[in-house]
Amino acid sequence: MLRSLAADFIGLIFPRLCLACREPLVTGENHLCTGCRAELPYTDFHLLPPEQNPLGRRFWGKLPIRHALSYLRFVRHGRVQNLLHELKYQGQRDVGTALGQLYGAELHNAGLAADFDLIVPVPLHPKKLAKRGYNQAAAFATGLAEGLKVPASATALRRTTNTNTQTKKNRAQRWENVATVFEVENPTSIIGRRILIVDDVLTTGATLEACGAVLLAAGAAEVSIATIACADR
Fold first, then answer.
1. DSSP-assigned states of every residue in 188-224
2. What would the pLDDT profile of 65-118 be if each residue is shown by its tens digit?
3. What is the pLDDT of residues 139-181, one digit of tens each?
């Protein structure tokens, strides 16, 4: 009782804010308020047949993938951008884990867990990892692993080159920037396995394409991709 009263008092002075809309959270809410949970722009791509999935079409003729999945639609200056900003630049790694848990549970309920043997996040270069303190894609992968009940490995892929930011590059420049910067750390952990590659945002898909190509070359049986959000082209 006293602990609850103390928590309520602290909450009045230092309210916890929803990371999407910045409104105060109430008891029982974590990271996201109930309103944002209901109104976020979900894609529901996992409910579509693969041939009808618009995200999958972005990889046609470039990379053979089993599933193309993204939890949310990226809308500039909206809730999703706020969430990604908190995750990548404000030290809120729990945002990635929480979103992964929610999405993983949805994918599990849709029967997709049986299609994956291993979840692999897009790696950061060690210098960038040391600067940020964590890999936002790995945080998302951790949550997905819990929701899907599929193991994740943050060391299966390694980034060998510290590339420049992709933000202002076109597709050709993005592909050139990442085409040869990934390698498989331990091929025996990949051979014959169905890999779900995960990242925070999908724009052109160049980074995920490069990771998928390396994994398939190392002997993966097939690859799928999943992101927190995807941007419209």
1. GGTTT-EEEEEEEEESS-HHHHHHHHHHHHTT-SEEE
2. 999 999 999 988 889 999 999 999 988 999 999 999 999 999 999 999 999 999
3. 999 999 999 999 999 999 998 876 655 455 555 544 455 556 8
**Euclidean distance between CA atoms 229 and 76, whole angstroms:** 11
Say whether 102 sits in a helix, a strand or coil: helix
Token pair, residue 119, equals: 């979840």
What stretches of 14-163 show up as alpha helix (H) in DSSP? 34-39, 54-57, 79-89, 93-109, 126-132, 136-148
CA distance 91 to 85: 9
Mean pLDDT of the chain: 87
Give the whole-angstrom CA distance, residue 162 versus residue 181: 8
pLDDT above 80 (res 135): yes
Is residue 201 within 8 Å of residue 43, measured between CB atoms?
Answer: no
Question: Binning pLDDT at 50, 70 and 90, where does residue 9 land?
Answer: very low
The values of phi and psi at residue 75, to 5°, are -125, 120
Q: 181 in helix, strand or coil? A: coil
Sign of torsion over alpha carbons 104, 109, 115, 118: positive
Share in percent of the chain as helix, strand, coil (round to 5): 45, 20, 40
Beta-sheet strand order (sheet of 118-121): 65-73, 222-230, 194-202, 118-121
> 152 forms bridges with which residues in the sheet?
119
